Amino acid sequence: MKLQLRFLAAAAVLAVAVSAPRALALVSLEDGKDHAFVDATFETGYDSNVFANAQSGGSMTYEGSLGIEFTRRAGWIGVNATATLNWARYSEFTSQDYVDPKFTAELTKQTGRTTGSLTMSAQREDRTDVTINTRDTSWNYDTGLDVQYPVIERYSITGTLDFDKIDYTDRELFTNQRTYTGNLYLYYILNEQRDLFLDARDRYTDESNETHDLDKALSAGVSGRVYGPFNGSVQVGYQTRKTFGGIDNGDTYQEVTASGSTTWNVNRRITVTGDLSRDYSTTALAQSIESTRASLTLQDSFTAKSSGTLTGAVGENRFIGIEGEVAPHSAHRLDDFISMTANYFYTVNQHLKLSINYTYYRSFSNVGFAEFSRNQVFFTATSHW
Q1: Range of the domain at 106
Q2: How confident is the model at residue 6 (pLDDT cuts 50, 70, 90)?
Q3: pLDDT at 68
């Protein structure tokens, strides 16, 4: 009976999207300055490894979301705000069923000499975490300030401040975190196609178990025409992490840091995008890790209504410090992974889009519990009004 009700709900979403445009109509106010949109999605499929570990089982899942988006474009300040409700049901692991709200707000200033934005978000999130090989639930809060100021004709400065707060519902198992991040960018316009920049970053993470991490990084990069036909932004630099408190108190780690994304427009139909990231982070168990990931995505627009993407990725999560050691011989935990994702998208009309997705993920680890494979197949219907 429950399964029948879920499929009836899915059918109702599709029926509304196709045959009842007035039910979820776009709203315009104040002579077109204010707009309200409604978004709805329904997704169903199979996940072979719900908890991302060697002992986990699989389950059919049914997921969906319903959201309202508000935008205002009048005067100097623009407003973007969303309110979304996400839900999921698991056939085999009913204790993982959830209903998660999410709220976001953004104030933007895009005119005048000084431009920037103020962003705020709050959401409840249920997710599968491959770094701790289980699922966790948390309330996540984020506030960010971004300011750009042109100094002279060729030089400009960008400053960002960000505060992230993660509160886990299971506080006996997971460690709450507060993260404060500041970036200062100096941009130099090299020519019409390319900018050079320097990025200085300080990041302080405060964990509820009375340990702390301080990350410092200095990077240089290029944005615009990176090289040849590749457009995007790439930066490489050097970073350090120093830990305070706990058994790793006073330890310092040093490594190369990198991030970037470049796209090659092969022709009018096909694009190739490469992504790279290498950075320190802190797990939900307050373990320090160095994460490296590289991916390549091929996108092909078959027709005006259909397109597909194929993504391959490789990466490594290296656990550092005493807490990252595993027996025998005090070796550190090391997780390598490969993944492949294929998507097909079809646009029925301006209000309804369908897609099918397949993802394969394989983890190789010197910890048996963390070595697993995962297959996911999902069908998604998305409606926008």
Answers
A1: 2-384
A2: very low
A3: 96
Q: What is the pLDDT of residues 179-205, one digit of tens each?
A: 999 999 999 999 989 999 999 999 999
Q: Which two tokens stand for residue 306?
A: 């259909």
CB 196 within 8 A of CB 202: no
The whole-angstrom separation of Cα 12 and Cα 326 is 51
Count Cβ atoms within 10 A of the Cβ of residue 219 and give its class: 0-12 exposed, 13-18 middle, 19 or more buried.
buried
Greatest alpha-carbon pair distance for the chain in Å reads 71
Which token pair is 31? 């002579």
- The structure tokens 């289980």 sit at 134
Length of the chain (residues): 385
Residue 348, CA distances (Å) to 24, 95, 299, 305 in order: 17, 35, 19, 7
Residue 2, Cβ density class (10 Å: 0-12 exposed, 13-18 middle, ≥19 buried)? exposed
Instruction: Report the CATH number at residue 235.
Output: 2.40.160
Residue 225 has which token pair?
A: 């025409």
CB 148 within 8 A of CB 116: yes
What's CA 82's distance to the chain center, in Å?
A: 17
Q: Is the dihedral angle over the CA atoms 34, 120, 98, 346 positive or is it negative?
A: positive
In the block, tokens 């400009």 appear at 156
Please work out, in degrees rounded to the nearest 5, the angle formed at the alpha carbon of residue 88 by the alpha carbons of 83 and 65: 30
- pLDDT band per the 50, 70, 90 thresholds, residue 380: very high
Tell me: pLDDT of 22 over 80. Answer: no
The answer to whether 181 touches 280, Cβ cutoff 8 Å, is no
Pair 21, 351: CB distance under 8 Å: yes
Residue 218 phi, psi dihedral angles, 5° rounding:
-130, 125
- Residue 283 CA to its chain's centroid (Å): 15
Total of domains in the chain: 1
